[in-house]
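Researcher: Last one for today. Full complex below.
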Amino acid sequence: MNALQILHDKKIRPSGLRLKILDYILNHKTHPTIDEIYEALIEDNPTLSKTTVYNTTKVLFENGVVKQVAIEGQPMRYDGDIKMHGHSFCRMCNNVYDVELLEEVKADFNGFTVEDTQVSYSGICKNCNTKLN
Amino acid sequence: MNALQILHDKKIRPSGLRLKILDYILNHKTHPTIDEIYEALIEDNPTLSKTTVYNTTKVLFENGVVKQVAIEGQPMRYDGDIKMHGHSFCRMCNNVYDVELLEEVKADFNGFTVEDTQVSYSGICKNCNTKLN
DNA sequence: TTCAACTTTGTAATGATTACAACATTATAA
DNA sequence: TTATAATGTTGTAATCATTACAAAGTTGAA
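Model: Here's the assembly. Have a good evening.
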């Protein structure tokens, strides 16, 4: 599904910048930050404001089009994959990887209505582990 | 195990403030923030600096004595329970609850060395659900 | 007792994010 | 088509949690 279809389905007016920002998030699986999105798009959109990237990602998030990936002590990242999955964060190279959860996390909620679940791991990735040896 | 024993075991010099701060975290299961710890202790310790609370919680965290509970868009919280467990955050009352994980989260890590796992849920707690009806 | 190491403090700096107001663009209905 | 309201975009300033830093206080070992 492409950016235009998604915005149309969610009744979000598909302005040029919204399309470009959503398209960037959908096509970069690196969990980009606001700055990364801004730097990537500023070249072809010289008047782009960082505030617009903040505003737009906020609209996309609030409408469930993208997910936020919060990593402690770092700027927010955005993820176009809204299926249930976890993230692993490498504290050496700062990359964020997708983690397929092999079974649903079962927990005792005692009347709590869950709206969002976040499973995240931090440590050292395969690549950085190799470099260490 | 009390605060003094813990600090001794970890070879952290048990200064008066460190003992009080750790004691507060151990005895308040509410996942307090820096500000909450500071406000609670300033009365009996009029010269206490917020920087000291930051410094001390950092030392405690780095030595594995307490855990950080990061909730997006809110100041960091601290948890004296270092056993594996999740957290649920109520977006209405802003309380944070402990969640017992009924089975270990299994995931495919592909060479990633996990040092820390965070499982968190957000939504509406039992109490606030009741108020809604 | 003295000196070095460590702890505590207050202020200033940092950095991500939001508030806000001006300006630009688009949609709608007369 | 034109007028007007609604929405989108921008830049600057404000906010707020956290960290940096340097000065002052405290502690403990030689």
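Helices of chain B lie at 3-9, 16-27, 34-42, 50-62, 126-132. The CA atoms of residues 22 and 43 of chain B lie 16 Å apart.
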